[in-house]
């Protein structure tokens, strides 16, 4: 198991590397975002510890680049920063980060977080393989490339939005609560609220144009349905 440590502060890298080595992990280090992206592709670490504040790139931009690249999208990312603002935490998680830890942190807590995201990652890899492509109406979803197209026009979804859409598309007609959606795409204990799921669904609908003109005779009903008091489902096309 290899941990990629991305932080511009050498003492922090030394602290993390010492503790992960004690636990039997191998590690690599990067002091900036560009080096982190290069190493992520070349060594394919099992998990990345990513600082939010880097000298050349914002950690959020690094996370976005990792999650939008098919070669690195599945690598778990734990963001770490001295910032404690909810907006920073939510931004990181919605870009696809798997966890968030604030400085100063306990090495024991960090190791526990690493093991937790590795367990979730391992569980996802043992799930049944997904199809090469899923088609719904004029929408094409390509799971392995994290790509979505509407009539051959690419749709830009965040990592979290893509995961939710893919999960619903894999289970057409089934109703899921918000917590079931969170658990399915991120695992148990993921720090996201029900309200965050609502925001993600709203954004997916907007990007897919899933708000039909009710005055149009050939308008389709909404693809993603809200089941009041329960959650959401993707309409099963017949």
UniProtKB/TrEMBL annotation:
Keywords (alphabetical) are: DNA-binding, Phosphoprotein, Transcription, Transcription regulation, Two-component regulatory system
SMART domains assigned to the protein according to its UniProt record, in alphabetical order: REC, Trans_reg_C
What InterPro entries does the record point to? CheY-like_superfamily, OmpR/PhoB-type_DNA-bd, Sig_transdc_resp-reg_C-effctor, Sig_transdc_resp-reg_receiver, WalR-like, WH-like_DNA-bd_sf
| GO cellular component terms listed in the entry, alphabetical order | cytosol; protein-DNA complex
Which positions carry the signal peptide feature in this UniProt record?
A: none
Q: Where are the transmembrane segments?
A: none
Q: Where is the OmpR/PhoB-type domain?
A: 131-236
A Gene Ontology molecular function term for this protein is: transcription cis-regulatory region binding
Q: What positions does the domain Response regulatory occupy?
A: 2-118
Q: Which residues carry this modification: 4-aspartylphosphate?
A: 51
Annotated DNA-binding ranges come to: 131-236
* GO process annotations (BP): regulation of DNA-templated transcription
Q: What is this protein called?
A: Response regulator transcription factor
